[in-house]
Amino acid sequence: MACMFRSDSxxxxxxxxxxxxxxxAELFETTLLHYGAMREDELDFIIQALRSIEAGATADxxxxxILDFKEDPAVHPRNxxxxxxxxxxxxxxxVCFSNAxxxxxxIVLGVADKKSGPEAFTGTQRELDWLIRKIFEGTQPNIHxxxxxxxxxxxxxxxxxVPRGITLYQRPKGQASKxxxxxxxx
Length: 186
Known about the structure:
alpha+beta; Methyltransferase, Cobalt-precorrin-4 Transmethylase, Domain 2; 2 domains; four-stranded mixed beta sheet; two-stranded antiparallel sheet; globular; ATP-dependent DNA helicase; ATP-binding; Schlafen_AlbA_2_dom; EC 3.6.1.-
């Protein structure tokens, strides 16, 4: 889509140019929100893990090179800025997963990793577009994660699908990491 305009006034041109930028930004944001859908086999993989947690396994016992669970810090705020804490974690994990050699990986938000059974599902009220945007903005080159909502044991969970990267991904200050076994390696 091209934004074209003709104006004799500099201020009118500036207003029209700004309007074009807003339209492009809205289209870009919509594209991020609908970057792709989780495949059926990927959804089955996530559901199998959630069933195991519901049946008594702890989330951390199920974490792997392609799966991680995270409780939303806003559910039980331990510090003054749960947003920053969550985003730092998600950016680090997205970089690790994208730099790995294992294909797509998943972060399930809204699950306490040390608890088991239905009480492990603490849920989240985070907005999908906010999470996608923060991860995108906090990585270089930008990582396009996909996000889906899932209801489990009465809790709203968010599944972030992190694609395998085609280059080395890092944080804006140049830190890069890669997940080897279950450990991030910097």
